[in-house]
């Protein structure tokens, strides 16, 4: 029996990916690293330090990656909090799961202070019993540690939890944690065959209905 849902944040609960992409291009270009939107799309779901590392390697640029990552994160967080880009059906889904007695958590590659700030700004913090940030752990996605940490904090076994993701990297983390996996990919990439690794592929969170929950 499933007892909890563990959600990714970016691209799933909030429509932040365009903001991350635009911010990444702006900050990296300012450091003479000529990344493009195509590059940023390829790196969707990767932590900021990994994106900066890949960008520097791709364009053979020597730079202070820690400083660039810090600037990237700070600007992205500011842009996201200002925009408040909550995804469709998020509140309805969270209310449904709460009414059905499911516990909920967030498992994200983003820093904890960012996650706290965003859920507070969107007024959804009270839905979540646990917020698990890979920035506080040894490994980031696609390693399953951030999901396993969320399960542990909930006091549940992975098989009792459902992980919900929108990226290939996140899906890999959920499946590696031996959890049931729901993916809600962006329409631009929803046709790819690799989503078959997930247990369920949805078009949007609104497809999590009482009837769907009964089938889990």
UniProtKB/TrEMBL annotation:
SUPFAM superfamilies: HAD-like. Keywords: Carbohydrate metabolism, Hydrolase, Magnesium, Metal-binding. InterPro entries: Beta-PGM-like, HAD-like_sf, HAD-SF_hydro_IA, HAD_2, HAD_sf, PGP-like_dom2. The keyword Calcium does not apply. GO terms for molecular function: hydrolase activity; magnesium ion binding. It holds the Pfam family HAD_2. Gene3D superfamilies: HAD superfamily/HAD-like, Putative phosphatase, domain 2. Its cofactor is Mg(2+). Belongs to the HAD-like hydrolase superfamily. CbbY/CbbZ/Gph/YieH family. This is Phosphatase. It comes from Caviibacterium pharyngocola. The lineage of its organism: Bacteria, Pseudomonadati, Pseudomonadota, Gammaproteobacteria, Pasteurellales.
